[in-house]
Amino acid sequence: MKHHVASFIALFLIASSHLRAAETTLHRADLVVIGGTPGGIACAVRAAREGLSVVLVNWHAHLGGIMSSGLGVWDTQWEGGRAPIYNEMRAAFFAFYRAKYGEDSPQYRDALPGAFGHTNGRYEPRVAEKIFNNLVAREKKITVLKGFIPVAVEREGALVKSVTVRECGAGLQPAAPDGQVANLPHTIRVLRGKVFADCTYEGDLAALAKVPYHVARESRDEFGEPHAGIVFMKPVSKPPDAEAAQLAALHEKLNLRKFPGWQIRLPESTGAADDAVQACNYRTMLTTNPANRVPVSQPANYDPYFLKTLEVFSGVKSIPNDKFGWNRPQLVGRQTAYVEADWTERQRIMDEHWETTLGLLYFLQHDPTVPEKVRAAWLEYGLAKDEFTDNGHRPYEIYVREARRIRGRAIYTQHDAMLAHGLGRAPVHTDSIAVTEWYMDSHSCTLARVPGSMEEGKAMLHQETFPGQIPYRCLLPQGVDNLLVPVCLSATHVAWGTVRLEPVFMQTGESAAFAAALALKHKTTPAALDPDLLVRSLCKAGSMVSFFNDKDALTPALQYFGTKGFFTDYDARLNEPLSEDVRAIWQRGFAQLKQGALHPIKLALAVHAAEAKNSSHTSQRRGDYLLQLWKELNNQP
Fold it and tell me: Is residue 304 in a domain?
């Protein structure tokens, strides 16, 4: 009853304070998705394809999140298949550049990922938005609301009943009436659903639903994470010790794009908890093409003394069609206030970042303290005229690298992205619904430095990070049973560095949609859904829930048993003969699985011991035996 009263009071205050009379409009759907990010789009599209009615809400008029706002790269170390909608999107990007410019064009070559160990494919923001729009438009069961933000949640105990959204006010981009907008003359919408998904970068719906969440950095002691809390890192070019060299050698065997170098934690790293999250910035789209270049003028609040203190580089990356993505500047210190701020304050923070971006570009082009050759080089750049054309060539979103992180029914920690003790792979989770593979990576959290260090909080754990499994429980907030949070999911600050990539969010978003559909089919909530049913469904759909080096890594049987502890490393070796000792351990594990008594880590350690015995081989291949078990599990002939 308390939630009902609070919700109606909030709705009354919103309506009465609005500048014009606002009649409320009610929408009903099986699934309400807040956030038109890539993860939100994957969630909405998959749910629609599974037969659910969906309302998809975005705070401005352009779908696609940071991918439509200048990211320009896929940000993945794994160039293979990951999940159905992610795979479909990648193929659409490649097909667009091939069809428009030809097989031998530089645009198509730029869009394609290189061989393992080389660069990601690249794309233009306007192309990303076009492809996302097309993907959503094909699904007739999706209703899109653009230019709306969530302002209230109605809860009955552990269930969310509705979300109230309002049209963005002054200072925020309004809704744009086009074919994908539910163009009704109302500014307040009440969205009633059976299941809800928070796919925002900020975790706004989760916060309104009053689920527990975390913003601050955890201490080193809280989860025993070596790089947690206040940390000062120093880059080095060689392995600092034998253990680091051994990890690098193991990492080299993975079919992942490689990043060189190591970092060491300096003694001044206290590991104490801290309020700061990692820095954000615009992913500005520049060009050197005179026909497409918009010069920048000196901004109103231009301050060259401040601008010369900012980090300039770390990325002017080539994008198709003579464009370049600029991954700076960062206003370290402003990012933390953004997280819990209202949208008026968030807009002010975003404006400050954009003014600084333009100011730094102007400074590099004109300030006499900048060497003449450097000025001449930067004068070649301007804003891309054909990007963000209705927004002054400014990206629609700032890159929010970290905001709220819910406290779920499991917490993904640094240990989940490192080798498990005694194994050649990260810890195994029986309810894995997605994989991580990007290195644990945090941008600066504060401006503090000690001799030899980077800015405090900045860390890139290239060699220590290994592909991990994200448990379904990380998407389930404590205390609410029909809310899924596939973007601001349950993870610590350190582990967040390997989670916070759009390929991961697209996979967790699609997995959340599968969970919603299965929950409704079985007349239960996502929290009460049998996680093994979900994992099996994901494996059958071709989703990677266990990372393997093997080319045929997406076979359902391999993916499924990879979540149960049947493998001790990242090499499945499906075509190799099955040893007698490994078959015995697999048989025992399969029996425990059916009895509900399986302990995956213990099984993986037993497999490791059996493989070390080098016993005689059976007449079966490893892959054939797994397929036999998979068919038995699914009652297939």
Answer: yes
